[in-house]
Amino acid sequence: MDANKGYAAIAGHYRRLITSGELTPGDPLPTVNAVAEQHGVARNTAVRAYDLLKREGLITTRAGAGTVVSAESHVYQSGSARVDRIDGGGKGLLAGETTVEHRAGMRSVDDVAVAAALGLDLRDEIAVRTRVFVRDGQRRVYAVSCYHVRATAALPELPTPGPLPGEWHQLYRDRTGREVHRSPERYSARIATPDELRRLHISDDTSAARAVLVASTVFHDEDGPLAYWEDIYAPGLSHLASK
To answer: By C-alpha distance, which of 152, 85, 86 is closest to 118?
Structure first.
């Protein structure tokens, strides 16, 4: 029995299988006894691992089916996790997930945080692409991707509405020979803007401010920042790190 393997490590193993898309909603998980045997731990350790995943909303117990991946979860992933899945050979979208309201174009930077992340001045031009992720009929995440002009020089498709011919960071690497690196995600909470509420189909006809969770990431190459991404989560959702 591996005394060094705790319940958190076992929960992390199955969490990665779920977040990578290898396990999809409704898929069965091993029994507690099977988990304990496979990982060489006491049955109580396996029970604690499953209890943690249940509290996170990732798995549930279904009559006649045992423990399965939850079909409805209040936990969601950011664009960084999607990049990890794609780089690992998986799919960018989760099972049952679609995207709507794709928009793209050039605009002047009017946000201090975006300007600082990309090393630009206010009113400098950037390419912006936006979309809304929908799952189980609900709008879950409003994604905003801002690109430095160095990125658009290599990828002139960025400010054009419509799908790209591949993943932007892979296209940039292929066309420039430079690797794209990602800074650690940063998380913050703030009051949602009227446009964010509209894109997420959240009513703003009350006087109460609506707070949203925001995950932000900066992508860069050897010469500096290339892209700044923000994922704005619908109220009630929490973030699940990709690793």
So the answer is: 152
